[in-house]
Amino acid sequence: MNAFDYRAPRVVDEALAVLREYGEDARVVAGGTALVTMMRQHLVRPGCLVSLRDVQGLSRIEATNGALRLGAMVTHREAEVSPLVRERLPVLAETFRRVATVRIRHMATIGGALAHADPNQDPPVTLLALDARVEVRGAGGRRELPLGEFFRDYYETALEPGELVTGITVPLLAAATGATFLKFLPRTADDYATVAVAATVTLEPDGERCREARIALGSVGVTPLRGRAAEALLPGERLGERVLQAAGEAVKGEVDPLSDHRGSAAYKREMTAVIVKRALTQAWEAARRSARGTR
Amino acid sequence: MTRVVRLTVNGTSHDVEVPTYRTLLDCLRYDLGLTGSKEGCGVGVCGSCTVLLDGKMISSCIALAVFADGREVTTVEGLAEDERLHPVQQAFMDAGGFQCGICTPGQVVSAKALLDANANPSDEEIREWMLGNLCRCTGYYKIVESIRAAAQRSRA
Amino acid sequence: MAHRVIGKPIGRLDGIEKVSGAARYSGDVTLPGLVWGKALRSPLPHARILRIDVSRAMAVPGVLAVLTAKDLPSILVGRRMFDMPLLARDRVRFIGERIAVVAALDPDIAEEALALIDVEYEDLPAVFDPVEAIKDGAPILHENPGAYEGAPAERPHPNVQSVLRFTLGDVEAGFREADRIFEHTFSTQLAHQGYLEPHAGVVAIDEEGRVQVWASNKMPFRLKELLSHALQVPPAKIRVNLTPIGGDFGGKGSLMDLPLAYHLARVTGRPVKMVMRYTEELMAGNPRHPSVITLRTGVSKGGRIVARRVKALFNSGAYAAFKPAPSVNLGGASMGAGVYRIPHLSIESFCVYTNNIPCGHARSPGEPQMVFAGESHMDMIARELSLDPAEFRRRNLLRDGDLLANGHHLEHVRASDTLEAALKASHWSEPKPGPWIGRGAAMTHRHIGVGFTNARVRLETDGKVTVLMALPDTGTGAHLVLRQVVAEVLGLPIGLVEIEVATTDDFATDSGVGGSRVTHTGGRAAYHAAEKLKEQIQAEAAKLGTPASSLAAIARAAAKEGRTLEASHFYDAKAHGAVTSFTAQVAEVSVDPQTGQVTVRHFTTAHDVGTIINPIGHQGQIEGGLIQGLGFALMEELRTEDGRISTLNLGDVKLPTIQDIPPLTTVLLEDPVGPGPFNAKAIGEGSISAVAPAIANAVADACGVRILDLPITAEKVYFALRAKAEPQAPPATERS
């Protein structure tokens, strides 16, 4: 790696000040699993690394009004094993659990994952299905934006120069909702997904018909995507082969996968439909169980 | 640009001056002479470089030495107590859990961390924990057996 | 016969250093003043080098030297055919070829300096496909390959490195006799050996001017010879210090970067360490040859094979330098005949130059490729003949006295027993537990390796015995096996027999590790040395009037007279024995029809083996080889397009993980007929080659789809299922 300056601020304001000082020559590092790997491969050569590892106040997991808030420096492993996350949003804990290996999850942070914006990552898919909101801080102050607006392109986010992700707020599920995350990785057990799907299904009071569904897709575009055309087909419907088939076909038209060693674009497109159908089925059945349980 | 980092490695404190680009692995191997941890893939995938940072297993080849400033590091060299091998080390020897040995430091450090967290892991839990420790020689069967045996022995 | 130590499941006593991190591999060696070397590699597959400017790199603080080809003698290197320069001189022939080296105070500084070396290239037309490379008008990589030292004479095209043929009978006459003829073509991927220790070496020139070498190389004496040739230094001035090796699997027998480390050491006056990053291994590390193999087989009405023609094209890459066999080809080509009696046989194996990564030997060189083709072909024929694949094999299996394509007559053939054992253990004939589940079988055989080894055994004054050998520890457990052999001969418990790893100064020669030979050659050398020592001990005991078991007393008595009880033996297995080892494997798989994903539900492996010296180590070799075969079958691939490898980190190569291993049943048919000590055979390369076809055959059984190229990915199965279901639908236009 190249020689670089290394700064380890203790508060967010100090971090922001260092970023202003170095401008484009600075990169923020949290867990380092993505950044240090890229630096070792000579893909990135920052003049300064600004570490958030000692910054106070970014590692909390807390329940707020009807939501969970996770600080940017919460690691994947902390989110995975957190009793609060496992109880309130088990689908999110399960998603974090699917990422890479325990070693990576000990280091990699949520904020780092979001800022890295690799569409092959798992947590953004579920976070997108859950309508999460990203907190950003910069010289101009705080702002919050929906995750769907945060990802712009492959490795590109809505972060302005000198801005940091400081946390993410994830609304809890409505009653009578089932949620599933499915990661399809047919080669070996340690990989990014060929296709990843997070689905939530909320049922009408009759416990059978869909009131609302959310479908998020990973590894099939330059950012994680919502399958809105497919989502639109579901309200009012009962779980059945016809509606699943229609949702699968609709989602195929919404994705634009890249061919790579995890699959050709054609294969990924076909698998999107297959995995969406499976995810919807599981989420629907979980919702029905949950609805029956509360009646 | 260099930094002085204070690392406690296997219970001993060291002040080391390192270039900022120095990985924790290279610092352990070359600045401190602890060559037990190995560089295999260099991208955090194979697990040959596994060490414990404040008790949690990490890939030291993609961690900067400066990340470990003020922290505690446990390497394979720190597993044995005086002359006695850790039960995991003994189990790997008895069951043939290693062959060429290059992945073995990472395997035993990871297995020790598993048993510290879960003294009675199921086979499924063993496989989930050890997913990131690749081995090309053994085909893994005897690694699972070794860890199972170590768990049994520790409980006895 | 009951043994005391042989056959006992002794754990890896020698493992304390490995489990504690104390073992020093080549990359761990450090010397005062050590500096780091790094190589600059070509970004182009075929180009002329017009200009190299190293001035910016030389100016980097911490850089001690930068060398290009003009600073070195124009020597060509290789393991058998010497066609590769130390550094590319005026032409590069593959992406990854070395063009310059830097010595610096740490590897990061060295790598930063590489980026400051300015090179100007002029593109040359390139060729990547071996089929294209041997056509008229193809770009030529080496103008006159026949002129290279070690080059075989036959050269139908300048891009052919070598041709290897095996012939029996008259294949055309055989085809005329046949009632039906079948032809199929298969292909296999570029795959790395996957050892987790990348190539590493340290070279130091000591005060006496001797070249001291520590290297991840499993043939230290051959290394010494090759270095002597490459460095133009007499062999006596070179000493190879053996270190344990972090996995070899065929890939660690070449000079790799060592001559460059030497020249950097010479120029800087400092010891130099060079360690390949894994990316460099994946770009330039002599992986397994990709192949395109066509088999044409004629069978009689009764389902007997009467004739077979095999044509194999191995995509050998830009240099032949990494192949060690005298044929400069892959011996595994002889497995085109499989485990069958084929009276009329013609096998032609071509190793072809292309502008790709130069390939080398990998576990069972050429065999996983050939056996995938041959055993898939057998099942496809069986299906056409409406025969159970096991029955078709039964009708054609080798028997005692049969002549193999490589000229050996077989004895103690247990092909049939091994097949039946695998079928029985895998519940072959029972109904499958559900739909989309299939079973497939495949067989192979593997000779016991030959070579030559020196051993010396010495009685110490504390009553222990030291076995001195210059065979490196590549991880197989061979050192423990050698200790067990000596302990058995001398009637000692294993704890009293130690092994001492020698250097190349201590013996004249040794063919080193490889080809599944160490238990045989090393074991026999140790065995005979131990027998000689036993005689000496008995003679001394008689003289002293003490029991022969009072070893310490005997040793001390001799020491008082200035003598050490010590015996040596050089064992040279010149000819292949007539004994081989059969392997029969059965895979049971399930296929997910919606995604094409293949899951191996169960795997059965049956082996016809000799006396097993260490059951734990023996089983470890079976399991390790088998999982490598699994990776080759389903997961692993170095993806390359136009000479550029895109899977440049180990995570992308897809080696099997601990979660990918299937439940396994092993059946061992132990027959004490091997040429090794106590009638041992060999096992190291027996379990890898039949895995891929067993799985391919199981997939065909499960869902009717036949995959002809490896790896068998979910995507390939998915699209093949679609094509079967919708024969009128246009094929998918994009493929991975």
In short:
The complex is a heterotrimer of chains A (295), B (156) and C (736). Chain A has 295 residues and is α+β, with helices and mostly antiparallel strands.
Furnish the topology, listing elements before pairings.
The complex is a heterotrimer of chains A (295), B (156) and C (736).
Chain A: E1 5-7, H1 12-22, E2 26-29, H2 35-40, E3 48-51, E4 61-64, E5 67-71, H3 76-81, H4 83-88, H5 90-97, H6 102-107, H7 110-116, H8 123-129, E6 133-138, E7 141-146, H9 147-150, E8 151-153, E9 156-157, E10 164-171, E11 177-184, E12 195-203, E13 210-218, E14 225-226, H10 228-232, H11 241-252, H12 265-294
Parallel strand pairs in A: 1-3, 2-3
Antiparallel strand pairs in A: 4-5, 5-10, 6-7, 6-10, 8-9, 11-12, 12-13, 13-14
Helix pairs in contact in A: 11-12
Chain B: E1 2-9, E2 12-19, H1 24-31, E3 50-53, E4 56-59, E5 71-74, H2 87-95, H3 104-117, H4 123-129, H5 141-155
Chain C: H1 16-20, E1 35-41, E2 47-53, H2 55-58, E3 63-68, E4 76-77, E5 84-85, E6 91-92, E7 98-104, H3 107-114, E8 118-123, H4 130-133, E9 160-168, H5 171-177, E10 180-188, E11 200-205, E12 211-215, H6 220-231, E13 238-241, H7 258-268, E14 272-275, H8 278-284, E15 291-299, E16 305-317, E17 344-353, H9 367-384, H10 389-394, H11 415-425, E18 437-447, E19 452-459, E20 465-469, H12 478-490, E21 497-501, H13 518-544, H14 551-560, E22 566-572, E23 580-591, E24 598-609, H15 615-634, E25 640-641, E26 644-645, H16 650-653, E27 664-670, H17 691-703, H18 714-725
Parallel strand pairs in C: 1-14, 12-13, 16-17, 20-21, 24-27
Antiparallel strand pairs in C: 1-7, 2-6, 2-8, 3-7, 4-5, 9-17, 10-15, 11-12, 11-14, 15-16, 18-23, 19-20, 19-22, 23-24, 25-26
Helix pairs in contact in C: 9-17, 12-13, 13-14, 15-17
